[in-house]
Predict the structure.
Amino acid sequence: DMNPIKTIAFRSYQKTLYLLSKLIHFPIPEVFHNLNDILEILKKDEKTKPVLIAGKTISKKEEVVSLIRLLQDNNISPFLYDRVSSDPDRKSIEDLATFYRSNGCDCIIAIGGGSSMDAGKALAVRLLYPRKPLEKFAGILKVRKKTPLLIACATTAGTGSEATICSVITQEEENYKFAISDPVLTPKYAILDDRFLKSLPKKVIADCGMDALCHALEAYLS
């Protein structure tokens, strides 16, 4: 059993966070339902050099290939980064930040499941604070600055990362994960194109459903 003093301290901390959350503005992404809507979004926000973060499998899907072609035909130069791991770690985020800067990118498009979107959010933090290690932002409300334009395109269901304030990163040396949580990490736009779900294997769809259920129970019990 937990020490009563620790219990009181933890419950007080939780209650304080709950009360503070009432004072915080949590942005809600603007939702679109077709991947090609990204073209109009970029035109509206006057962006021409997005980094496109996706896994190797997703990046080869016809929807993504067509999007890249569409952007290129409209004088937008997307730079595809397809080396996202299933559990993005600090090194991969550093590589991603170097890729972003070397290509002169001006916004972030994350296409995939939670890993791609975690990487996109962590990249935004790295760009804001190039001299500060990512683990220094573990916890809540430590970013605080406005991030580059972030567009999140979900290809699975269950993580909800396209609408959350969190990015989860692996600390490879110590073999554990930490979360960076700040409302500024909420994507400005969420693309929910059901073509990706329709092309998933049935087992993956079932896993997504269980993931959504586990997230709901976890949030309720916490």
Summary: Strands lie at 30-32, 50-53, 79-81, 107-112, 139-140, 150-154, 166-171, 176-181, 189-191.
